[in-house]
Amino acid sequence: AEAPEAFTTTAALSGAWRVLAALGFEPVLGECCGCHTSLPPDDDVAFAHEAGGAMCPRCSAGMGQTRRFPAAARRSLAAWLCDAPVPSLTAAEARAHQRLLREFVRQHLEDERPLRAFTVWEHGGWSARAAEPV
Question: pTM of the prediction?
Answer without folding.
Answer: 0.79
